[in-house]
Design a protein that fits this description.
alpha+beta, 2 domains, 4-stranded antiparallel beta sheet, globular
């Protein structure tokens, strides 16, 4: 099994000895998930976090009008989970689903405690990871409340470079909070304004 991508991600934040790496690797499991397979279903408790090795995942919820709203995408070299459900062990409003055939590493909540006891420096890693996720969440909320659809679209292109070709127009529109038709006109305007 190829752990290089995951270990490289860890080493951006913490240095690990060979033994610490081996212990961490012993706690994660590799999974292949097929398109439309769900890692979490709304109403369930998020018991694992998932590191995307290859593929694409979406985290979405159903709003009060009964429409799907994509909250975030998980692509290569990113973790995805419902942070509140994971840490507080409460039911989730989100569903986490593969958009395409995807490969992930899974780290279970129950194994994180073992990891933190044996390798305390992971406390720093998870704190930094949590800070990054909190920043993204706050930025996402700010975008939803105060940015125009065009600004949200441009931020989406910046946040998820090259992902646009992997997603349906409906999925991108759901993320932006616009109709697919509006997104189409937004894209056309973007194309005509390019130098």
């Amino acid at each position: 099994m190829e752990f290089n991508l995951l270990l490289k991600s860890l080493h951006k934040h913490i240095e690990l000895s060979k033994e610490e790496e081996e212990f961490f690797v012993s706690l994660v499991s590799y999974k292949k998930i097929t398109k439309k397979e769900k890692l979490l279903i709304s109403g369930g408790i998020c018991l694992s976090k998932f590191f995307v090795v290859k593929g694409c995942i979406r985290k979405y919820y159903i709003n009060t009008e009964g429409k799907e709203r994509v909250f975030e995408f998980g692509i290569e070299n990113q973790w995805i989970l419902d942070m509140q459900s994971f840490w507080k062990e409460t039911s989730s409003i989100y569903t986490i689903e593969a958009i395409e055939n995807t490969e992930v590493f899974e780290l279970k909540r129950s194994d994180i405690d073992k990891l933190l006891i044996k390798v305390p420096k992971f406390e720093r890693y998870f704190r930094l990871l949590g800070n990054e996720m909190l920043y993204k969440k706050e930025r996402r909320i700010k975008q939803s409340l105060s940015c125009s659809a065009k600004e949200r679209y441009n931020d989406f292109l910046s946040d998820y470079p090259k992902i646009e070709l992997r997603l349906s127009q409906r999925q991108i529109a759901s993320y932006l909070g616009v109709s697919p038709e509006f997104l189409s006109s937004l894209r056309n305007k973007n194309e005509t304004t390019k130098p």
